[in-house]
Predict the structure.
Amino acid sequence: MIDLRDLYQEVILDHSRNPRNAGRLAEPSGTAKGHNPLCGDLITLDVLVEDGVIRDVSFDARGCAISVAAASIMSDMLKGKTLAETHDLFRRFQEMLTGPDAEAEGLDKLEVLAGVREFPMRVKCATLPFHTLRAALDNESGTVKTE
């Protein structure tokens, strides 16, 4: 029988080695850069929003398996979501990773990253793509840092 942790590790490694939506959008409505100095993760994220709905997300990332996998999973999940749904998803994901009694239910594919909460230094790796997405949606200049 496969241990759930082993399955989660396989999913994270798969998304890290074969990231979905890797690359850059030709005409994004927002772009942002993110950096996690503790781990060295770097991400450039493009988003296309039309009528309050995320139509496309892509990214170029270098970093640890957790950061790249989180960007891949996140970018896959957000297509077709409204901005309100996206902000709610990030809030619940953040709570899952940092809250004392947080639930992973309802986070779909992001649930595989629940084990990161056992390693507080890695939480920043997992949340960097969302912080970068928020900056892209808000058209913030500069680089988002996890510090």
